[in-house]
Amino acid sequence: MLNVDWLDIVSVFGWFIAVYMVIVIVFYSVILMISLFQLRKEYQLDRIQAYEDYMDEFYTRPVSIIVPAYNEEAGIIQSVRSLLSVNYPTFEIIVVNDGSTDRTLEKMITQYDMKEISRVVRKQINTKPIKTIYQSSILSNLFLVDKENGGKADALNVGLNFSHYPYFCSLDGDSVLEPDAFLKVMKPIIDSNEEVIASGGSVRIANGCEIKNGHILKIGLSNNPLVIMQIIEYLRAFLMGRIGLSRHNLLLIISGAFGVFSKHWTIEAGGYKTDTVGEDMELVVRIHRLLKEKRINKKIVYVPDPVCWTEVPEDMTILRRQRRRWHRGLFESLWTHRGLTFNPKYGSIGVISFPYFWIVEFLGPIIEFLGYIFMVLCLFLGGVYIEFAILLFLLSCLYGSLFSMAAVLLEEWSLTKYPKVSDIVKLFLYSITETIWYRPMTVFWRCEGIWQMMVGDKSWGEMKRKGVSK
Amino acid sequence: MINQEILFLSILTSSLMCLLFLLLLYLIIRKSKEIKTRREIESYKNKINNQIFSIIAQGQVFRGMGCETAIKQRAMEELLSRYVKILEGEEEKKRLSDLATHCLQGYYQKRLKSKRWSYRMNALYHIEDFHMTKLLNEVVLLSKKKKLSHQEMIHVLRILASFQFKDLLDLLLNHYHYLSEYENRGILMRLNQDLFDQFVLSFHKSTPPLQFAILDVISLNKAIKYRVFTENIYLTYKGEVKLRALKALSEIGYVRNIEPYLQLLYSPNWQERMVAAKLIGSVKEEKGIPRLIELLHDQVWWVRSQAGQSISQFPNGKAILQSVLETSKDAFARDMAWDWLHKGV
Question: What is the C-alpha R_g of chain B?
């Protein structure tokens, strides 16, 4: 008798997982549909033409580019060089040296002939003290701020305090920008007559591409399976997820690698938060919250065009650390603003976005992980449970592989960034295998992230860069 | 019971798989075709490039210039787009426009009727770039379409403006009064003197965004011809329009009587102080210098910055800023003085 009850619990549990998966699949399908229409509309639109009309407008909206640098001596000169050739009428570059222990500072000073200047910096956001400010004597729009170590968010805040222009963009050390990146992301801001206050673009993976002096020469595909899987993952997240969410102003993430924000609203919201690992998402959430609380009708949007190429981890250990950190960052942002969840006062952000991020993004890995355990368990139990295991496996195929395959095809159908036929085939074939190895692996890592959080492990996990540029 | 679900799911998964594989196949074929077409276009471009250049640059007759296939049309379009960006002379532009009309008129007529939004948009961009005035009627026709997207509509109006379409004033005043300032400006910037005069004359009837746009065009062009008009607007209007008029005057760089504007440097409204400072700098009115130095201490950054810039426009500006840098007790004023001394202008 007792035995039967126990088996009942097993099947209830199994059904719970199955129903959860079905709901998520439905949700993904809806988002996929929205993206499909949006991308199709702009297929083969001559974009260069479209930017020409805006040149005068771009003039009146200068951008400050903030580059936080902590021990980046390997890539900092390349990064700055690539930024200097960006296609935008007026901008300034502010490199914030976050107390590096290597030669980042010296390299910058000698390369660009930086001279010390005395400046009063208006402290709109509280930060660690600034040591010295330098300006390049060759390029008057290049600044270097040397400060005490305080983490990435603190460095960004210093950059914000120092910056002169109404818009700013933060950039990771080893990202490569598309030449037209700023034109692409500033266009929605101008189009909307500044109703859009933050805008981001797709981030693509630079591993495997040929890069020289901070420019993409040739788009290629890496041979490392781990990198290929990450490419697919990025395609899926950006092309499917973000376009769909952005369409209805539900976006909670603008990639940390590249986004332009209105400085006014960022400062109003209090700048970057220093005690979280996901400062970029946290900021977007806080801006949304501020807007809703003040009842101001402003938007945060996302542009499907790739604007930025970034290096991703090539081996398991670092990837694992990255995923654990991401998941913790996600939790911290959601937890800090948990009051928004299902709160009708915050409109669609509270009723749709927040529940989505809690249920699908945060709890998803736990439920999937339980699902995998359940599948294994069912195999041992035998009988009717084998069928249950098959059912769950099929669902997770739908959930994992099929959507990834669709994302790869969506890329080829609309943006066609990869030049060779073989690239697409390779991406497609790899995406079929997602359910079998990559997905369970990342799901496990994310669960680890949750576990670490519960036991109070605060270690950061540094990202080691190999350097993609030649 | 569960068997049914499994069956259903297996069928669903496998049929979706099949569908995706079919899509893959389609995309592979499409891509290889596209790669092949691209190669053909490039080779045709190489073939006709010299001929096109001599047609445009030397006015050679273009008999026998074949544009009957889609590949040739696309090659032509790409080549002409490249030339149109670098051409300067009126003569050459005219020749390019004639060549485009000769080769691509039919192509764009068809494209304008296409169901695909991006095709129609691209056609509109090129019609304007190549200045294909013969397609004016088709463009007007497109504007009457019922389900026209906002972007298309804006571009149609821009084209009508570049082609100096006579009824544009009526269209903007009565049919498209909801356009934003930026959209209006994009249209007005393309007008010639005569048509723009019409807009200036009906300034009082216009919506605020159109009024802002008119003043902005005057200020972008630094059009001294409209100085009297702008001063009148400054005197009769209030708020944002007044401010824009002031900005336009500061760009024109001349006013009949400076006195009322000097008073404005003391305005409680910081935007007015800022634009007034800009005006004083651009007309180089010495009487304003003492107040400009005071404005270096203003509580608003924008006013301080503008005051610094205006001072630096005077012949002895650098010396004034230098003395502020050395003597002022206000850190912000010193900062601003330093800033403008080191702008490298």
Answer: 29
